[in-house]
């Protein structure tokens, strides 16, 4: 079983811990956030405005966040949902395996019965032609 390697130039660098925390805050936000709103949302970390601004800019450059100018401030939002990103990461991990069948088998071995049932249902749906 072979899967073509994927190369997404904006997302090929892993996120650091602070970038991950900011992305989690973006995913949990009800809508786009300005830098000031993000600083407030992450208040328990005591981050400087400039630090959050730099992290959001990095996430934008890496292709993880989109931004729109609203007045004099950018409003940031995730480029993709958390689930879409996790799916992409799983596909990238699988495509990097020398033995994809063995990697899938190891992955399935770690699943709970509920997760295995959900996967089975998704695979069954995928095999059914769409009307």
UniProtKB/TrEMBL annotation:
<dbReference type="InterPro" id="IPR005650">
    <property type="entry name" value="BlaI_family"/>
</dbReference>
<keyword id="KW-0238">DNA-binding</keyword>
<dbReference type="GO" id="GO:0003677">
    <property type="term" value="F:DNA binding"/>
</dbReference>
<protein>
    <submittedName>
        <fullName>Predicted transcriptional regulator</fullName>
    </submittedName>
</protein>
<dbReference type="Pfam" id="PF03965">
    <property type="entry name" value="Penicillinase_R"/>
</dbReference>
<dbReference type="InterPro" id="IPR036388">
    <property type="entry name" value="WH-like_DNA-bd_sf"/>
</dbReference>
<keyword id="KW-0804">Transcription</keyword>
<keyword id="KW-0805">Transcription regulation</keyword>
<comment type="similarity">
    <text>Belongs to the BlaI transcriptional regulatory family.</text>
</comment>
<dbReference type="GO" id="GO:0045892">
    <property type="term" value="P:negative regulation of DNA-templated transcription"/>
</dbReference>
<dbReference type="InterPro" id="IPR036390">
    <property type="entry name" value="WH_DNA-bd_sf"/>
</dbReference>
